[in-house]
Amino acid sequence: MLQHNIYSLHGWIETRKLLTKFIHDNWTPAVARRENRMITDNGNRTWSYTKGAKLSGVESIVWGFTIADVRLDTAETYCADVRRWAENILSDSEKLFQQKKNLI
User: Fold this and answer.
1) pLDDT tens per residue, range 49-72
2) Is 76 a domain residue?
3) Fewest CB atoms within 10 A around its CB: which of 8, 17, 97, 102?
């Protein structure tokens, strides 16, 4: 959804931060739920993940790896490709993220 700019500006930035924690800090889904409970809880946030203005500039990113590049031949290649896909999303969007992260 980051590559297709489905999220609102705030949702895009928060989701990208979370992806960074999964890739660089080795977060698990359980850790993410525990650590982000206050940020993501509907009762605690005033913004929507999908409703609202989108992040400008996403449409200009040239994505080096997409879901279409993920191979399905074995579990090992699938897992490796999903990780590569996530890493590419982070690297391909880094410049835009640095420019826009302070908007929220």
Assistant:
1) 999 999 999 999 999 999 999 999
2) yes
3) 102
